[in-house]
Amino acid sequence: METAHSPSPPDLSRCVRCGICKTLCPTYAEEPAEGMGARGRVALVKGLASGQISPSRLLNKHLYSCILCGACSGSCPLGIDVPETVYQGRSLLRDADVRRRVLRYLTRLSVAWPDAAYRLARMAQGTLWSFLARKGIIPEFPELQEVPFRKAEQVFKTHKKKRGRVAVFTGCSINYIFPDLGESLLNVLQKLNYEVVLPKGEVCCGNPLRSVGLEEQAVEQAKKNYRVFSRLKVDAILSLCPTCTHTLKHEYPKLIGKGLDKAMDISVFFLDKLEQVPRFDKTAVYHDPCHLQYMLGVTKEPREIIRKAGIDLIETADPGCCGFGGLYCMSNREMSSRFLAKRGADIMASKSDTVITSCPGCILTLGRSVKDRPVIHLIELIEDAYCIRADAQELLF
Ligand code: SF4
Ligand code: SF4
Questions:
Q1: How many CB atoms lie within 10 A of CB 299?
Q2: Residue among 199, 189, 117 nearest 151 (CA)
């Protein structure tokens, strides 16, 4: 039986203001004011929680300017979890935060009725959606397909001797925006003789709710997903979105006291299962998604897979956040654009043939800046290298 569990706030009284977390913070690098950095945010949430500071526009700005990238996570010698502190601060600010009331309302509705939100988005994509995208208010989305990726409970059996069984956590971006990437993952898993289950009852991981201070609603999402995925007899729970993977694995224990330990990034799962196939005599930049590198500690595995496919990797001079940050790219457009301009210019200077990343959000965002070469998901490269699509060269390079 599940027990009620609310995330307990980190003990901020231990902060000795050493500033280590601040040195890693990209928003502080952009705007070197104390409230724009990790250390300042810890002090502000501490003041807010103790009643010494009252909600204000400036406080909102400082807590919402955090892109929740996680660059500061694990850096504190006293174990203070800064991103978790920011979530708690936003939750405390929620009722006083008038500016994001509409965003919070829409996020809540979209998470509660995702299929209805998807149908509305499809209806609006030729009109309102494209107008907002042209104005830079929302990212440009690929044309939304008639049906989402996940339909009902599906089990894809393998015709050969079964190598294992995995579950796919689809996530909203794959389900509604990039269903073709979900198909690629299924193809690769079946090629490797895995039985794949897409269980009925998956809901949004809850991260967008947390990002706008809706902690209780995120707890409900966590309970639902835990119930669905923890009962499955599988070797791994794979997702194409590092934010989902991190949330299932590391944030659920904070939200409901238990996480889905089998959640993992596809690169970690596939690395020792893919042979060397030097198919592509090309160059690529690998863009590290923040949550994959900082929260999940995965940087080597995708690079090794790319090299196995014969591609030369170019490391760029100024790697950093692309500015996506989930809802951040819509609610903090100015700061998000600054990140994107930097990262885009850095990638363009590399003269690589293609850009590979592991996050659907990074694909959406980088695609706005990097126009002269494809920006693809790692699963597309894996599919093309190992499942041999005839048009691979044109799609990838
Ligand atoms: S999560 Fe990122 S933006 Fe937020 S305080 Fe930490 S380093 Fe700064
Ligand atoms: S690293 Fe830890 S102790 Fe140092 S300023 Fe940041 S939160 Fe405080």
A1: 13
A2: 199
Ligand having the closest approach to the CA of 26: 1
d(CA 333, CA 105): 19
Domain regions of the chain by residue span: 15-96, 272-396
Is 58 near ligand 2, meaning CB less than 6 Å away? no
- Is the CB of residue 83 below 6 angstroms from any atom belonging to ligand 1? yes
**Rounded distance, CA 294 to CA 348, Å?**
24
Cα of first residue to Cα of last residue in the chain, in angstroms, is 51
Query: Residue 227, SS3?
Result: helix
Reading the chain (397 residues) residue by residue, the pLDDT tens digits are 333 444 556 788 899 999 999 999 999 999 999 999 999 999 999 999 999 999 999 999 999 999 999 999 989 999 999 999 999 999 999 988 888 888 899 899 989 988 888 888 787 777 777 777 766 666 666 777 777 888 766 878 777 788 999 999 999 999 999 999 999 999 999 989 999 999 999 999 999 999 999 999 999 999 999 999 999 999 999 999 999 999 999 999 999 999 999 999 999 999 999 888 877 889 999 999 999 999 999 999 999 999 999 999 999 998 999 999 888 888 888 999 999 999 999 999 998 999 999 999 999 999 989 999 999 999 999 998 887 654 555 556 6
Edge-to-edge strands of the sheet including 194-198? 154-156, 194-198, 164-168, 236-239, 263-265
Fold of the 272-396 domain: Rossmann fold (3.40.50)
C-alpha of residue 82 to centroid of ligand 1, in Å: 7
In eight-state DSSP terms, residue 36 is G
Choose which CATH entry (2.60.40.10, 1.20.140.10, 1.10.390.10, 1.10.1060.10) describes domain 15-96.
1.10.1060.10
Q: In what order do the strands lie in the sheet with 312-313?
A: 312-313, 283-287, 354-357, 375-377
pTM, full prediction: 0.91
Q: Which atom of ligand 2 is nearest to the CA of 17?
A: 5
Ligand 2 contact, 11 CB (< 6 A): no
